[in-house]
Amino acid sequence: MAGDWTIPQQWERYSAAEHAMWDKLFARQAAMLPERVVPEFMSGLDMLRMTRPGIPDFDELSERLTKATGWQVVAVPGLVPDRTFFEHLANRRFVAGRFIRTPEQMDYLQEPDIFHDVFGHVPLLAHPVFADYMQAYGEGGLRADGLGAIERLSRLYWYTVEFGLIRNEGGLRLYGAGIVSSHAESVFALDAPSPNRLGFDLKRVMRTPYRIDDYQQSYFVVESFEDLLRQTIETDFAPLYAEMAAEADIPIEAVLDTDLVFTRGTQAHARSGES
Ligand code: PHE
Ligand code: CO
């Protein structure tokens, strides 16, 4: 392993069964997403030729991605230290796992695999504005680290990059990678009466904890990627971090008077205790 935690993908080592697993996951999401995901996600899949069968080869993918937005995809063994992760993003390198889930893990797995990392995240990296947001986030992460605010900032990543919704002419659409790589959450996040769907507000989001073990109890809706990028780069987060240090977190299921409410969730799913 190199000092930056990257490893070779060793694409030629994937078995036929592993490529078939990718194809199966891909077909299932490709069938349901066009009506649900932000259109730029589908254009990204196309532009990067991710619609071809088999697990993508990172070198080939990076070549196309570099032409579009200057991003690359690099393999890592699993979770990497925060600073390493931020450094990669700040330099337009997206770190991805190289293993793929087993058939038993088709619907649920704890650790992000290549399907989540590559299918979920990479298509939007071909979109210039989203690509800039990801780089800015990496730079913001390095700064947050120095300010003891990584936990706050990670909530922004969670509620945008991983579980974000976006407003579209016809209604709400998915864009978060954690949603679009999950068959069940792609339905739940848009259609279930259980979760709240609230307007995105930078500080509000950074005050809201999140769930890593089940569907989200609140999703946040951005107006556009341009608006998300503008708000985050034009705001100096240092004073926000300082204010938040003296403020309690917002309960995970709360709807505030100040929230723009798209859906006031029943929270029936969270209360049922099932997942
Ligand atoms: N503007 C932020 C700061 O002052 C940096 C940032 C940009 C963070 C974009 C997240 C996303 O720290
Ligand atoms: Co992810």
Query: Care to count the β-strands?
Result: 7
Helix and strand run: HHHEHEHHHEEHHEHEHHEH
In order across it, which strands form the biggest sheet? 4-3-6-5-7
Provide a count of the helices.
13
What is the chains' assembly state? single chain
Cα-atom radius of gyration: 18 Å
Give the uncertain stretches in residue-range form.
Answer: none
Rounded to the nearest angstrom, the distance between the terminal CA atoms is 36 Å
**What class would the helix/strand composition place it in?**
alpha/beta
Largest sheet: 5 strands, mixed
Broad shape: globular
Q: What fraction strand?
A: 5-15%
Distinct ligands, ions and cofactors found in the model: phenylalanine, cobalt (II) ion
Provide the helix percentage: 40-55%
| Mean model confidence by pLDDT | 96
Describe this structure in words.
The protein is α/β, with parallel strands linked by helices. Helix content is 48%, strand content 10%. The structure holds phenylalanine and cobalt (II) ion (CO). The site of phenylalanine has 10 residues, from helix 6 and helix 11.
Topology summary:
Elements: H1 16-32, H2 39-47, H3 58-69, E1 72-75, H4 82-90, E2 93-96, H5 114-125, H6 128-146, H7 150-162, E3 165-168, E4 171-174, H8 177-180, H9 183-191, E5 196-199, H10 202-206, E6 218-222, H11 225-234, H12 237-244, E7 261-263, H13 268-272
Helix pairs in contact: 2-5, 4-6, 6-7, 6-11
This protein binds phenylalanine and cobalt (II) ion.
Cobalt (II) ion (CO) binds at residues 112, 116, 120-121, 162, 177-178.
